[in-house]
Model the fold of this input.
Amino acid sequence: MRNFRHSGILLSCLLLFSGIAAAQKRTVDPATGAVTWETSMHGVALSLTQILPDQARAFYLNRGLPADATEIYANACVYMTVLRNDSAPGVVHFRQADWSVVSGGESRPPLCVESWFERFQAHALSKSATIAFRWAQFPAEHAYQPGGDWNQGMLTTGLPAAAEFDLVVRWDVAGRSYQGILKNVQCAK
Amino acid sequence: MWLAAATKVFLKMSNARNDLMRWLGLFWLSLWLVPSQADLPPLTHNLTAVAEPSPAPALRLLSMDDEMVDIESLKGKVVVVNFWATWCPPCRREMPSLEVLYQETKAQGVVVLAVNIGEDFDTVFPFLGSVEPSPNFPILLDRDSSSLSDWKVRGLPTTFVVAPDGKLAYQAVGGREFNHPALIKQLLSLME
Done:
C-alpha cells in the first residue's frame, strides 16, 4: 500500500514536470545557433527566436538604416516574435506596453518603436528606412481573431548580451485578462 | 552552417573594403534572417467576416506596370487587397498562394491587388521573379505607406476582401494559405 502511495506521488510528479516541459519548449537552430522559446496558453501561441547581432545588422543595413543606428539596435537583445490566436475564446487584444521583461529584479515593457525613433533622431533615417524599421517591429497593439490571426515581428528588450529574463505577455478577451510567461529566455551572446 | 559560411564571406568582403561586394554580402546575409519553413507556424485559411461592413477606404496607387489603379473603379468585383513588403517573411510565404487564388478566380470576377509598403521598383521586381508561381496580378507601390493608416493596418501582412458592393467583407491578419479550396469558395460566394 505504502509503495503504491509512493508510486502515485512519483507519477503525479512526473505528470507535473512533463506538463511544465510541454508548456515551454526550447529549440536551437543547428544552422545559426539561434535559440527559440515557445509556449501556448489559453489558445494563444507565443514564441521568441533570437536574432543574432549579425543578422540584425544585415537586415537593417540592407534596408538603408545608418550603420551607427543599426549597431545600437543590433545589440539591444532582439527577438523574432510570433503571437497567434489559435483557439482563444474570442478576440485577443494586447498592448506591448502591458507586457513585462523581468530581469535582475526589475520589470519594464519591451522597448517600443517610438523610443527607437527617439534614439535615432540624430541619425537621419531615410523615409524608406523609417518605414521598413517601423513595420518590421512587432505591433505595439493589435486584436487577433480566433482561428489564426497572427503577426511576426521584431521585439527588443534593451538588455545586454547573454542577459536572462522572463517575458510576461498580457492580453484580454472580452474584458477578461490573461497572461502567459516565457521563462529563462536569454539574449544572444 | 549556412549562416556561418555567409558570415565568413561577409567579413572577408568587409576587410577588403569593397563597398559593392559588401552590400551584396549584406543582402545575401539578410536572407538568413528568415527562418526555414520548418520553423515557421503553419498558415491557416480562415478569413474573419467584418461585423459591420463599411465602405472600403480609398486606394489609388501606381502599379509596377506604371498604371494607376483605383479601387473605386472595381465595384462589381470581389477585390482582395493584400498589404505586404519583401522583407516580411509571412508576406513572402503567402505570395505564391495569392497567385494561385488569382489564376483560379479571375474569370469569375475576383481581383487581387498587392500593395507593397515603402519599397521601390528595383527592390520589388527581383523579389517577384523569385516567387514561384510569379505574380501576374497588379502590384501597387505605396512609397510613403499612407495606405496603411487609411486601412487601419497594424501589422504586415494584412489582407482585406472587398465585396462587389464596395464594402469590406472579410479580413485576415498575418499570413494565409489563399489557395485553400474553402477560402476560394468563401470568396466566390460573395459573387452570388
Observations:
- Helices of chain B lie at 2-16, 19-30, 89-105, 121-130, 146-150, 181-188.
- The interface with chain A takes residues 1-4, 7, 10, 23, 26-27, 29-30, 32-33, 35-36, 39-41, 43-44, 46, 48, 85, 87-90, 117-120, 143-145, 148, 154-156, 172-176 of chain B (CB under 8 Å).
